[in-house]
Design brief:
The complex is a heterodimer of chains A (365) and B (313). Chain A has helices at 2-10, 12-30, 35-47, 50-74, 83-100, 106-135, 139-159, 193-210, 212-222, 224-229, 234-261, 272-282, 287-311, 316-332, 341-360. With 365 residues, chain A is mainly alpha-helical. Chain A has one domain (14-360): Orthogonal Bundle (ABC transporter involved in vitamin B12 uptake, BtuC). Chain A starts with a helix and ends in a 5-residue tail after the last helix. In chain B, helix 3 runs antiparallel to helix 9 (194-221) and helix 6 (152-170) crosses helix 7. The chains are: A mainly alpha (365), B mainly alpha (313).
Chain lengths: 365, 313
């Protein structure tokens, strides 16, 4: 009996998805279509169609990187809800290097753009990290508010100083075509960025399992006082984990520019940063599973476009289904079978806060 | 700056400060109530949006703003009930639940608004509340036109602040709520139900935050648009901290944010050369700066965000 329960328990993300799809079918009925036909169109379009699958991979890239940007700081019990803003600033940095650094050979220039994008995201994430580590200001609220600042800032840049002349809509000039990321599937939009995402996810998995940083980060989250006693700096781990997470999100923005849109657009991200939260929790905060949850959410997104074209169902139904998925994933946390990864990560946040209090002892927000 | 210093301009800036702070005040008041009972309420954003959608649906089908108000509050309470069931009964982390509610409400309202309002969503003109002057009081210079020539929901807002204040500090139940936020075990051993108190506060908070959304729809724009809450719930969270978890403090913090918002609109109008995005950023930047520049040590209710289990400790 125990083993049956355990198997059921470990599949809880699958149950959450199935339940969300079941409730979603009611929504599709409400929209006046046949749910079975709609889902068949959606999944066939997303995973079993050459062009559709390419579209899925295009969306999977930012989703995966944004998901990892949520997973990493939660290892130390910290919430990074700022991936959306980090995506924007990363894309901005990459575009600046792409447009205004001349005379480099293509491949080197691509590497430089990528590093700039990662740096942009990391610097944007540094703000909440410093405020959390040294001022004890709630990182959730700060990252959320900074998302709006980044959105409007990029909007200003592409409708002012970096705007394409005579453009009808705020966007930057096109980047040189030597910087376009090579395509993964011939004649499609699917670019190599998604492979970088997968490699980062795998590396993060290995680091979590075997790496020194993975160990110290988890120790800081699990028992900050012990970590401090062993000579690890809690503040430094907060800052480092946020900056690396910001770099991941910055890469998501970079690859959107270099691999997909070739320009910096106003409001281009459309919530990839928030969807990253869904990806992370659907994966149970495991970087390896994040690959699959990003593929699934990316498939939902691209399949929704197919569904709209084929059957005229609003793509927003997928936003509703995605909302249901995360709601059911959250609800599944109510079932306990030993401590889950999510449960453990969250217990850490409280301990980090208490340890920070012990150390700095002045602010609590 | 001359344009800001004549009495007419002062009245305009102050009354638009007040109008812009109304959704924040409702949301922050909801935040105070639920956090005082020990439930961290990051779902405020979703509750505003649920309230706004409910208000639009109610006003659309019944063709009067009062039905909008009722349906809006109902939707807010539904969003609140998710937080209550998962966060209070099942002990799911309140931050995770709150984030899930925000994402869920965003998706479901975007979808349902297409279904309900269809193509006319952006051209809709829903019935709403009109400003009315309170006799005698509205003729006081400056204060009159600012405070006493507003619409129904502004007066409801002031009444709500007073009611929440009286409830928290002048009633036995309010004492129990404050106690349950600090030390749920003590409340439990005094024979009161911790979950019941928290359910009450979280549900009431859902209805109050929803009023902020109702105000957006029924008093300001008269239609529903996707994600129209635009981060107001998060600014309200900052206001709760800035106001030190007290209803009056939260009111003052929101009025301050509203004032800066009104000021930026005014400056935007007077300085058309400055890109408008800088003004759009201002409310969020000021909220962050307010948190950073906070003098002294804010102390949240001791048990906020923690699930209470009888058996533990």
């Amino acid at each position: 009996m125990d083993s049956v329960y355990r198997v059921m328990f470990h599949l809880r993300s699958v149950w959450a998805i199935l339940l969300a799809l079941a409730v979603g079918s009611i929504l599709i009925l409400a929209a006046g279509s046949n749910p079975i036909e709609a889902y068949a169109t959606l999944f066939k379009g997303a995973f079993f169609d050459y062009w559709g699958f390419a579209a899925t991979l295009v969306k999977m890239c930012p989703l995966l990187l944004a998901g990892l940007a949520v997973v990493l700081p939660l290892r130390a019990g910290l919430f990074n809800i700022g991936a959306e803003g980090q995506i924007y600033i990363g894309a901005l940095f990459a575009t600046i290097v792409a447009l205004y650094v001349p005379g480099l050979p293509g491949p080197l220039h691509i590497v430089l753009c990528t590093l700039a994008g990662a740096l942009g995201g990391a610097l944007w994430a540094l703000i909440p990290a410093l405020l959390k580590a040294y001022q004890r200001i709630n990182e959730i609220i700060v990252t959320l508010l900074l998302n709006f600042v980044a959105l409007h800032f990029v909007s200003f840049v592409v409708s002012g100083p970096m705007m394409e002349k005579g453009a009808p809509y705020p966007y930057s000039p096109e980047i040189p075509d030597t910087l376009f990321l090579p395509h993964l599937l011939a004649r499609t939009d699917a670019h190599y960025g998604v492979l970088v995402g997968v490699v980062i996810a795998l590396s993060l998995y290995v680091v979590f399992q075997r790496g020194v940083f993975g160990f110290t980060l988890a120790t800081v989250g699990r028992n900050p006082n012990a970590a401090r006693y062993a000579g690890m700096s809690v503040e430094r781990h907060i800052i480092l984990s946020f900056m690396i997470a910001g770099a991941f999100a910055g890469l998501a923005g970079t690859f959107e520019v270099l691999g997909h849109r070739y320009r910096l657009f106003h409001a281009f991200s459309q919530g990839y940063g928030y969807d990253g939260i869904v990806v992370a929790f659907l994966a149970g905060l495991n970087p390896l599973f994040a690959i699959f949850s990003a593929l699934f959410i990316g498939g939902l997104r691209s399949g929704a476009n197919m569904m709209q074209r084929a059957m005229g169902i609003e793509t927003t139904v997928v936003e509703a289904i995605q909302g249901l998925v995360i709601l059911f994933v959250a609800a599944s946390l109510a079932f306990r079978y030993r401590a889950t990864a999510i449960g453990r990560a969250i217990a850490r946040r409280q301990e980090v806060e208490e340890a920070l209090d012990g150390q700095t002892g002045d602010r609590k927000t | 700056m001359d344009a800001l210093l004549n009495p007419q301009a002062i009245v305009e800036v102050l009354s638009s400060s007040l109008r812009l702070s109304v959704p924040l005040v409702f949301a922050a008041l909801a935040g105070v109530l639920s956090e005082r009972s020990g439930v961290f309420n990051i779902a405020l954003e979703g509750k505003i949006l649920a309230g706004a959608f409910g208000a639009a649906v109610g006003a659309f089908f019944m063709d009067d703003p009062y039905s909008g108000l009722v349906v809006g509050m109902l939707f807010g309470m539904m969003a609140g009930s998710i937080l209550a069931v998962l966060g209070v009964t099942f002990g799911v982390n309140q931050i995770v639940t709150g984030i899930a509610i925000n994402i869920f409400v965003l998706g479901i309202t975007a979808f349902l608004s297409r279904i309900v309002f269809g193509a006319q969503a952006n051209t809709l003109k829903l019935p709403g509340f009109k400003a009315f002057e309170i006799p005698w009081l509205s003729s006081i210079p400056i204060i009159g036109p600012v405070l006493f020539s507003q619409d129904l929901l502004v007066y409801v807002m002031f009444a709500s602040v007073a009611l929440v204040f009286l409830f928290l500090y002048r009633t036995t139940w309010g004492l129990a709520v404050r106690a349950v936020g600090e030390n749920p075990a003590a409340v439990d051993s005094a024979g009161l139900s911790v979950p019941a108190l928290r359910y009450g506060c979280v549900m009431a908070a859902g209805a109050i935050a929803a009023l902020g959304g109702c105000y957006l729809v029924l008093s300001q724009v008269f239609l529903f648009s996707e994600h129209m809450s635009a981060g107001k719930g998060f600014i309200a969270l900052a206001a709760v901290i800035l106001g030190r978890w007290s209803p009056v403090g939260a009111l003052l913090a929101c009025l301050l944010f509203g004032f800066f918002d009104a000021l930026q609109l005014r400056l935007q109008f007077n300085y058309p050369d400055v890109p408008h995005q800088f003004f759009l950023m201002l409310p969020y930047l000021i909220s962050i700066l307010a948190l950073v520049g906070l003098v002294g040590k804010p102390r949240p209710p001791a048990s906020v965000g923690r699930h209470y289990r009888r058996e533990a400790k």
